[in-house]
Amino acid sequence: MSFELDPNRTALVVIDIMKRVFSWESQPHPIQEVVSQTTRLVNAFRQAESFVVLVRVASVDGKDFLDPITDPLPSTLLPHALAEEPEDWSDILPALGSHPLDHLVTKHQWGAFFGTDLDLQLRRRNIDTIVLCGISTNIGVETTAREAYQHGYNQVFATDAMNAYSEEEHRHTCTYILPRMGRIRSTDEIVAAVSGKPEASHDQA
Questions:
Q1: Per-domain residue ranges for the chain?
Q2: Domain Isochorismatase-like, which positions (predicted)?
Q3: How far apart are the C-alpha atoms of 149 and 181, rounded to whole Å?
Q4: 10-59+77-194: what fold?
Q5: What's the CA gap between 91 and 93, in Å, rounded?
Q6: pLDDT tens for residues 11-20?
Q7: Model pLDDT for residues 119-175, shown as the tens digit of each residue
Q8: CA end-to-end distance (rounded Å), the chain
């Protein structure tokens, strides 16, 4: 089955590829590989003159972050810290570069739609399809995907440009959740499609 994307109706939405991603361990891909694949997607969408949205989570004092009462998480579900977070932890990774037409979304919870102008910016540009990638697969990416699904967008998931705290969490979302809301594709397939060179598709996690 051929896989095609209309660059005029498709946006790339990159979730939380910030400087903090190097301060804790994520799975199942080497973090530099996720960054590299994301950079390839960003560059391809820019070259196709498609809309690129870079999403980050940030706060001045932390008081606008959600803080519900929860049960303690098992240690296996907590990220493994590798280093102290830099002061500019919420900055988008420089490896992604920048372009004057990129749109920056600052969110204060897991999903990129709630409380932001993302839906407005997409609809004003007549975009009906979004390509999602980023960190983490089962939190920021999955929550944004669920919101996009409820807003009626078609979705494509670059699962080789995603990571989670654990491989189990990543695999669960890619196997049981994302296929209910869109199509699973590799970075290679997405780059080819947005560049006007569609290839035969296959699942990639």
A1: 10-59+77-194
A2: 10-189
A3: 6
A4: Rossmann fold (3.40.50)
A5: 6
A6: 999 999 998 8
A7: 999 999 999 999 999 999 999 999 999 999 999 999 999 999 999 999 999 999 999
A8: 18
Measured CA distances, 4 to 73, 123, 153, 199 (Å):
41, 20, 16, 8
**Taking the alpha carbons of 26, 28, 33, 34 in that order, is the dihedral positive or negative?**
negative
CA gap 3, 182 in Å, rounded: 13
Q: What are phi and psi of 12, to 5 degrees?
A: -95, 125
Residue 181, judged by CB atoms within 10 A of its CB (0-12, 13-18, 19+), counts as middle
199: pLDDT strictly greater than 70:
no
- Which band of pLDDT confidence, cut at 50, 70 and 90, is reported for residue 87? confident
| pLDDT above 70: residue 100 | yes
Closest among 166, 150, 159, 142 to 74, alpha carbons compared: 166
pTM of the model as a whole: 0.91
Alpha-helix runs per DSSP H in the chain: 31-47, 118-124, 142-151, 167-172, 187-194
**Alpha-carbon gap, residue 194 to 45, rounded angstroms:** 7
Comparing C-alpha atoms, which of 62, 61, 42, 64 is closest to residue 53?
42
- Beta strands, E only, 16-128: 24-25, 51-57, 80-81, 103-107
CA atoms lying within 13 Å on the CB side of residue 41? 34
